[in-house]
Amino acid sequence: MQGVKMTATRESYGNTLVELGKEDNRIVVLDADLAGATRTAYFKKAYPDRHIDCGIAEANMVGIAAGLATAGMIPFIHAGISVGEDGATHQCNEDVALMRTVPGMVIINPADDVEARAAVRAAAMYDGPVYLRFGRLPVPVIHSDPDYKFEIGKGIQLSEGEDVTLVATGLMVAKALEAVKDLEA
């Protein structure tokens, strides 16, 4: 994908949290000793008084976030993340299925930088729990159209066709678009 802007969605997450932190002092970020990997370190540097490192205690971190939410804060905890070169032993493949079992949970798996930034903002404004799934490796920008508008729960058709339907989410959207080109050829 030479010449195409590539950005990891975890970068979008970290950068957008910093922007949101400036706009709303109710934003608080928690992580489980993964501020570097999830890019919450950007928020930690900008707003150290609103960043909590819970150590490697994810279940405890979720409880703390729930308490903060009941107190009117808007907590973000370390997000689902594909770990790229760390390999399959570090990858949670069942995270979406697990999160679907939580009543009222909204799951957002952005495809690129543009969608990830919009998804973080939408999650901050959403009244309820949201699971954001991000990736470590850079992906191409797909949503470069200035008219693009992110909407929770709404899919987007990226290509026209009649013979095959490909459905993808998150990091696999770029791969699906490559498959479309291959199939057209």
Could you please describe the fold and organization of this structure?
With 185 residues, the protein is an alpha/beta fold. Helix content is 38%, strand content 15%. The protein is built from seven helices and eight strands; from the N terminus they run βαβααβαββαβαββα. A three-stranded parallel sheet has the order 3-2-4, with helices on both faces. Strands 5-7-6 form a three-stranded parallel sheet. Helix 6 links the parallel strand 6 and strand 7. The longest helix has 15 residues. The radius of gyration is 17 Å and the shape is globular.
In a few lines, what is going on in this structure?
With about 180 residues, the protein is an alpha/beta fold. It contains seven helices and eight strands.
Biggest sheet strand line-up: 3-2-4
* Order of SSEs: EHEHHEHEEHEHEEH
Could you say which overall geometry the principal axes of the C-alpha atoms support? globular
Query: Could you report the average pLDDT, rounded to the nearest whole number?
Result: 89
* Global structural class: alpha/beta
| DSSP strand count | 8
Total helices: the number is 7
Q: Which percent range describes the beta-strand content?
A: 15-25%
Computed CA radius of gyration, to the nearest angstrom: 17 Å
**Major sheet size, sense and barrel closure:** 3 strands, parallel
First-residue to last-residue Cα separation: 17 Å
Q: Give the helix proportion (percent range).
A: 25-40%
Q: Could you name the ranges where pLDDT drops below 50 across 5 or more consecutive residues?
A: none
